[in-house]
Amino acid sequence: MEVYKRWIRRNKDFVRQLDSLVNNLTWFLPDEFAESEIGPEAVSSLVGMITTMNEYIIETSPTEVHTRCAESSFIPLSLCLTLLKDLETSIEVVAEQLYGEKNKWNLIAITEAVKVGIRLVIFRKTGYKMLLQGGETENAENDSDSFSLQETKRQLGKPTGNEESGITKTFHVQNSGNLEDRAISALCSFGKNATMQHPQAIMEPPSKLVERASLWTFLSEKGIPGGFFVTGEIMLIIRPLVYVLLMRKYGTRSWFPWCVSLAVDLIGNSILSATLMFQHCGKHQQLQSSDSEKDELKRRRMLWALYLIRDPLFTKYTRQRLEGTQRLVQPIPILGFVAEKLIDVVIGVQTRYTYTSGS
């Protein structure tokens, strides 16, 4: 495995181009192989999982400047979540082939429950920070920690008055010697200064300085806004599972699952947006959103467009509008052909829950 990792990191540009080529080639599978839906989806999932693993190996290269903290020898939860998302469409297809359209929701519900569990663990381990890309991207921004680190480095490199004179005196004494002796003397003096000023910063590993707060500690520090923030984030985490369970009970033609899912999305995002907005307007800012978290809120709002292609709205409204638009542009040579193909793709995508779940 280590040999494979070294080869991937050494040829990362080639690996990325190869992964992209293989992903594109999955669209041109032979007709005999594509007759069954399981075959193409299994190949697509396998290629996606290999691409995900290769990208993870490249990003965690020890030669990179921004290296992630090692999480012992286990696979990170964010990577497990991404691999599961690569596999979920194949799970849905297999469940439909084996158990039928109605009973496939049991296996889909299990998959969503596993994803919810992983996201809740990630949410807790990150100190109750907003999940980026559903937990697939690490939310590691912490201004206070980075400031403390920079301040420590600045103080380590800044000698005091007496120690500065000692270093200068050492330089003068060693001035008659060779360059190597002066360099060794300067390094020894600097190491002594750093140890005298910050012995704990040298002796203790940085990982011990960062402790993940418990939920009670987080709520105690952040107060009521923190409680609203946790509530809104948990609502958005469990929303897909609630939607699938309601679809399993009421079916795809019922408006109840669609309305409940939309309501949870709207309420959860509104709570998060209002909490962060009021914090920025107030004097005491217990919660501060980073640029990546602001982008995440925008991404979640864009996912609301998926409700247009979810049943029953798609069957009763969106499809008729798309077909009407197709008839209008059909006489136009190129535009009519493109519109027809796009609508066919949308109709095909709409038949799969995993393509439109936004989870």
From TrEMBL:
Q: Which residues cross the membrane?
A: 224-243
Chief site of localization:
membrane
Q: Name one Pfam family in it.
A: Pex16
Listed A to Z, the keywords are:
Membrane, Peroxisome, Peroxisome biogenesis, Transmembrane, Transmembrane helix
Q: Which domain of life is it from?
A: Eukaryota
For whether the record's keyword set contains Membrane, the answer is yes
- InterPro entries, A to Z: Pex16
Map out region (Disordered) in residue numbers. 138-167
- Localization (cell): Peroxisome membrane
For this protein, the record's PANTHER family field holds: PEROXISOMAL MEMBRANE PROTEIN PEX16 (PTHR13299:SF1)
Q: Which family does it belong to?
A: Belongs to the peroxin-16 family.
- The name on file for this protein is Peroxisomal membrane protein PEX16
Q: Which organism is it from?
A: Datura stramonium
